[in-house]
Amino acid sequence: MRTLLIADMHLSDDTPEINQGFYDYLEHTAKGADALYILGDLFDAWIGDDLIDAPHPLGAIAREVIQRLHKLSSDGTAIYFIHGNRDFLIGERFITACQATLLPDIEEVELQGLPAVILHGDSLCTQDDDYMAFRRQSRDPEWQAQILALPLEQRVALASSLRMQSGDANAGKADAIMDVTHSEVVALMESHGVATMIHGHTHRPKVHDLTVEDVPAKRFVLGDWDDQHGWDIVIEKTNHTEPRLRQFPLKNPPSP
User: What is the DSSP letter of 169?
Assistant: First the structure.
């Protein structure tokens, strides 16, 4: 019995090695797993579910991803998805086509019997005032409706512009500002009564030891995938269930 968690693949038409590595991971590593949790930023940008029908290169990638996730789900692996800061416009059409379940931005779950809170992680970066303002705007249903009403090519251009602006803005920020706020982490874990948190977003893979309500706790941070390596967390049903954070070569993903 095995549960997997991944995040920050950032699939796009500019990342053929990562795209293929993700497909191989689904076929070889995720095969036979009880559940696969995708904690956001599956795509580097998502501009609306109508992309699925579009001749745009990302449309072809989206259709391939849907086909492969649908097969994994049909073979018995439950698939769960949480929005990231790059693919927050993924909607029910995409989720339904994958035979997946869309979870709230923050979700309390049991992973092979281990209580945990899972999320993308961007909501924890509360010291980054500019990003938090954008996050509030981008999650507003009216704003999303306005964006989705734009022609597809205009949305493509907008997504590219936003990525460039984000990169320029982040280049001038201190590392601590773009990382999670410790007090926010502790408060969230306390509110859910758990001693395990799993997230991505920061691209700083690590297992952090901390204390929550005088109890030892752990925060697992998933890494982002590049053209050589991927990251996941595996939780296997044992007498001492403990998540394992691991990096692996894309050309040789872990066996089931």
Answer: H
Residue 255 lies in a domain: no
Contact 153, 159 (CB under 8 A): no
Secondary structure, 3-state, 53-64: HCCCHHHHHHHH
Q: Which residue has the tokens 């044992």?
A: 238
What is the model's pLDDT at position 162?
Answer: 79
CA 82/CA 90 separation, integer angstroms: 10
Which residue is listed with tokens 């993924």? Answer: 90
Domain that holds residue 16: 2-249
In a domain, 254, yes or no: no
The Cβ-side half-sphere exposure at 227, using a 13 Å CA radius, reads: 6
Domain count, the chain: 1
Mean pLDDT per 10-residue segment, the chain (256 residues): 97 96 97 97 95 91 97 98 96 98 98 96 94 94 95 89 69 70 97 98 97 96 98 87 94 91
Q: End-to-end alpha-carbon separation of the chain, Å?
A: 10
- Beta carbons of 3 and 232 less than 8 angstroms apart: no
Residue 237's pLDDT is 86
Please name every residue paired with 82 in a beta bridge, in sequence order, or none if there are none: none
Burial level of 2, CB count in 10 A (0-12/13-18/19+)? middle
**Cα–Cα distances in angstroms (integers) from residue 204 to residues 7, 175, 208, 231, 245, in the given order:** 12, 11, 11, 11, 12
Q: What CATH number did the domain enclosing 223 receive?
A: 3.60.21.10
Domain-embedded: residue 256 = no
In a domain, 99, yes or no: yes
Tokens of 47: 């501009």
β-bridge mates for residue 109, sequence order: 116
Which of 111, 20, 36 lies closest to 69 in space, CA to CA?
Answer: 36
CA distance 183 to 204: 18
